Structure formats: structure tokens, C-alpha cells
Amino acid sequence: MKSIELTNISTYYKKSIFQKTKVLRNIDLKLQKGKIYGLLGPNGAGKTTLIKTLLGLLRKHDGTISYYNEGKKVSRVKWLQRVGFVPEEVTFSQNITGRNFLKLMGNLYPINKKDLTQRVKDLFQLVGLESEKEKSINAYSKGMKKRLLIAQALLCNPHMLFLDEPMAGLDPKQRNQMRSLFTQYKDQGTGILISSHELPEIQMICDAIFLIKDGQIILTENLDSLDSFQSNPEVQLAINDINELPQKISTKYHCSEEHGRITISVKQDNLQELLAVLNDNGIAVKNIQTGSANLEKVFLNNLK
């Protein structure tokens, strides 16, 4: 079910009275509930600006943003009542405790006092900070602060979550816990947009990606079709062990040997050339397998 839709959105920063720079360029974007999206792009591409524009924290200068709740258009103010946001960095008040921070943030939402008290208690347990809730945030590690921010984003039982580098500062165990948490919320119908440079994390958890470059979305794809949009995937050929590979093969292609079987890796564009060389040397191919696409390769290929 659709939650937010952007049509032809552009945003400017003014350098001076007479000069302005276009930061977002003609963005078309649609986010649905019950899906996890990855927002990818190099530094300065416009990822954080896009998220802040989605949330109304930055002004859009052109285009329209439509907000939905249960399939019906609603105002941005009403939509934001069920939206959580984790910024990349936050400066906390030095002396506030974790529990008081969540209570303070909870007062921004239409939650009664009794429900808020229970919600805060449940969220500390959910993000693994139950024993730290009475400590000053100043004593928290970077990973603890990140988990606290994730907890505050969940205060309103959100139908949409916007997460800017949510895995930063987390150890492998904590990352796994947060992946499970995000998947749990997705399964309950929450839509999630994750902006991150952690491409393996995105590939593990997301249903689709948006790739942004110079303020423009240059690629929108479902991750289950990752192989189909990799421009030049790698192919692996298996041959039986032979005494010596021809130099033309061993010096040009990556070759490995295991259990009497030689595997040659080649880009699909060069496959026919390799097959011809193998045929000329009387070497039979036992198996050909296309390697699964890697999100990092897709990312780099599309940013050339």
C-alpha cells in the first residue's frame, strides 16, 4: 500500500541572492508500506537531502509530495504522526538519561502518559539497552547511541521509517539484531527507507534500491532482479584438470584449481573469446555458471 509519492521534486540551495545550486533534480519516487528500500549513492549525491525533503525538514522548490494513510491522501502533519526518523548524527544534551530522552521524544507524539511509560520500557528491551536506561547518554558508546535513536524512531509505532546509516557503530551481533528488528517491522506492514554506504547490509535486507547521483535517481530496481541489470556479469567455466593451461588463458583470466577441477572466471563480454581459445586447444568445458550479481559491482558500474 502506497505511503508517500514524490513527483518531479527539485530542491535548491542558495549560494547568494543571485546564485542557487540545484541539489535534487526532478525526483520521482514512490514508497510502499511493508517493503524495505535502500537509498544508495556517493557522498554528496543528495541522500540526506532527499530524506529531509521527504520529511518536510527541507523545503522543496518544485514538484509535489503526496502523503497516504490506509490508501487515502492525508496532510503531512497527520502522516508524520506515524513516521520514525533516525538521523546519521545527533548532538545529545550531556546530562539527560536514556529513559528521559525517550520520554521527551515520546511527548512529540499523541501518546498518553501511561502508554508512553510502557512503550519506553518495551523499546529499551527491544534494542538491548534495558540495563543502560538510567545512565547518562554522555556515557553511551556510539553503538548504544545509535540503538537509542532507533528506539526513539519506533516510539510512534511507525507506518514508515527513515534510517540514515542505522548500522554505523554497531558490532556484528548488534547489526544482526537490528536486521531482524527491521524485518519484523516490515512484516508487520511498516515501510522502511535505509540510506547507507554498507552495500552488503543493503543487499541482505532490502527489497529494492534507489541509486542517486548528482541529485538525480539514476537507477530504481528490485533486488530480486539484481542479476538482470548487472551490465557485464561474471561467468565461471569448469574444465577437467589438465597438465598445463595454455599461457593465453592462464595470463589473461583468473584461474583456480580445487579437487582436480579447474575453474576459469571471465566477464560475459569475453566469454565467446575464451570458448574459442579452449576449443582451439582441445579443452572441453564441463560446466558454465553465471555468478550472482554483487550490489557493489552494480553500484560502481552505474556510477562510471
Automatic annotation (TrEMBL):
Domain ABC transporter: 4-239
A GO molecular function held by the record: ATP binding
PROSITE patterns from the UniProt entry: ABC_TRANSPORTER_1, ABC_TRANSPORTER_2
CDD domains given in the database record: ABC_DR_subfamily_A
InterPro entries: AAA+_ATPase, ABC_transporter-like_ATP-bd, ABC_transporter-like_CS, ABC_transporter_ATP-binding, P-loop_NTPase
Keyword vocabulary terms for this entry: ATP-binding, Nodulation, Nucleotide-binding, Transport
Stored Pfam families: ABC_tran (PF00005)
Family per similarity comment: Belongs to the ABC transporter superfamily.
Protein name, entry field: ABC transporter ATP-binding protein
Origin species: Fodinibius halophilus
